[in-house]
Design brief:
The chain is of the alpha/beta class and about 425 residues long. It is built from 14 helices and 18 strands. The protein has helices at about 15-25, 60-75, 100-110, 160-165, 175-180, 180-195, 205-215, 265-275, 285-290, 295-305, 320-330, 330-350, 365-375, 420-425; strands spanning about 10, 30-35, 50-55, 80-85, 115-120, 125-130, 130-135, 140, 170-175, 195-200, 220-225, 255-260, 280, 310-315, 355-360, 380-385, 390-395, 405-410. Strand 6 (about 125-130) and strand 7 (about 130-135) form a beta hairpin.
Length: about 425
């Protein structure tokens, strides 16, 4: 084990969210390593921050807590000075959690009676005002997240959403306080603690708000947030922005996109890729249920000759009506697991059998399944493509342990031309 340089130890509840957080820390100058799951061995490289990527967002709360506490124990053993629990910028959760239950379990383990909560990420049009979460110009409850197949979000009031998930009292640090700066935020935190508040939702409508919040969190053992708050934390440790933190090995090999997200943003990206004239293959969950491995083999046979001429896209992305029809036939959980499993097999086949070495994966659950299928244990974080989405580099057994460039894109992130732009940026 190398001498610990670890400043921030992060626990992310899905794989795309982990790279989103790592991206913001790298942009602020930190050397960041992302692990896939909790490592079995000590950290063997110098890093300012480590992001442990879990696939816990939609697990039963008890399982999510157990995995998060295991990640915490490992990060503490590496000398992490501050813990950061990262969840989605759309606060994805169910009435039973997992944001509240995991946050409280981490608080108990760290012996702290207070932390903040804010998914604000203004660079990606996620803002919080008076405790309400906005996606672009509309409330969360009026956005595409209303019809998310696993975590439909139909209440934009984060104080109310979080209070339903936690036994601690939830309060608010509103925009009028945040606008006054770190000292006012610190005073508000002291007042809330005196009132018995254990978690406080924080307003933020701009990066300036997040930068004002950062210094007020310097001594806080636990921060819970989306990735946006990360831009204000490295300065607390004397770290300044630097391009050297994001350098990756040179790219090589063939290019492909695997998309399992059904968000509005990803639907637009799929349509743009198809309109650009590049080859695309839709995956029908009902065919997967009927033909399984043969369906995977058919996709790989289709892709193999086309890859020589540029990137191909394999997608299960569909609109809300199509998703509901499939769920009605197969069941919601069964349909999701079926698609994840087969897209992961396709991703592995594209790398192992077809020579793909530049792979874009869209969707949090899909990314988790694909990375696990590729046997990736650790990611080096590179330069940003769009806010919240960087290129990464990893060694994969599927690539004969050669280098593999990966992008794990949250379903809601990226411009309409993201799939085509990503390869040009690399």
């Amino acid at each position: 084990m190398v001498k610990s340089t670890l400043k921030i130890g992060c626990i992310a509840d899905d794989f795309t969210g982990a790279t989103d957080l790592a991206n913001n820390l790298v942009r602020a100058g930190m050397r960041v390593v992302q692990t896939i799951g909790v490592p079995a061995a000590p950290l063997d490289t110098e890093a300012d921050a480590v992001v442990v990527a879990l696939k816990s967002r939609t697990l039963p709360a008890a399982e999510a807590i157990a995995q998060s506490l295991a990640a915490l124990a490992w990060l503490q053993a590496q000398g992490a000075q501050q813990i950061y629990f990262k969840y989605c910028s759309t606060f994805d959760s169910t009435a039973a959690g997992n944001i509240g239950p995991v946050a409280e379990a981490l608080m108990d383990a760290l012996g702290t009676d207070f932390t903040i909560a804010t998914p604000a990420f203004p660079d990606n049009q996620r803002t919080v005002f008076k405790g309400y979460l906005f996606v672009g110009d509309v409330l969360l409850s009026e956005s595409g997240m209303r019809d998310h197949p696993l975590t439909p979000m139909r209440d934009a009031n984060l104080v109310r959403v979080l209070q339903a998930q936690t036994r601690r009292k939830v309060g608010l640090i509103d925009h009028a306080v945040v606008a006054q700066g770190a000292a006012a935020i610190t005073d508000r935190i002291a007042s809330l603690r005196a009132e018995g508040v254990g978690l406080a939702v924080v307003d933020a409508v701009s990066n300036a708000d997040l930068l004002r919040l950062g210094p007020a969190l310097k001594a806080m053992p636990l921060v819970t947030a989306g990735s946006g708050v990360a831009i204000g934390l490295p300065a607390n440790f004397g770290v300044a922005a630097s391009d050297t933190a994001s350098v990756l090995p040179a790219a090589q090999g063939l290019q492909a996109v695997v998309s399992g997200s059904c968000s509005l943003a990803t639907n637009r990206q799929v349509q743009h890729f198809i309109a650009s004239g590049r080859p695309a293959r839709a995956i029908d969950p009902l065919q997967l249920a009927a033909y399984g491995d043969k369906a995977v083999a058919d996709v790989l046979a289709w892709a193999r000759p086309l890859l020589r001429d540029g990137p191909v896209l394999v997608y299960s992305t569909a609109d809300a009506g199509a998703i509901q029809a499939v769920q009605g036939r197969l069941g919601a959980a069964e349909a999701g697991a079926l698609v994840e499993h087969h897209l992961a097999a396709i991703a592995r086949g594209l790398v192992a059998e077809c020579g793909v070495r530049q792979l874009v994966v869209a969707g949090g659950e899909t990314s988790g399944a694909c990375v696990q299928a590729l046997g990736v244990a650790q990611l080096k974080i590179g330069a940003q493509i769009d806010p919240g989405v960087p290129w990464c580099w990893a060694q994969s057994p599927a690539a004969d342990n050669a280098g593999l460039h990966l992008t794990l894109k949250s379903g809601n992130f990226g411009t309409h031309d993201f799939f085509t732009k990503a390869f040009a940026r690399l």
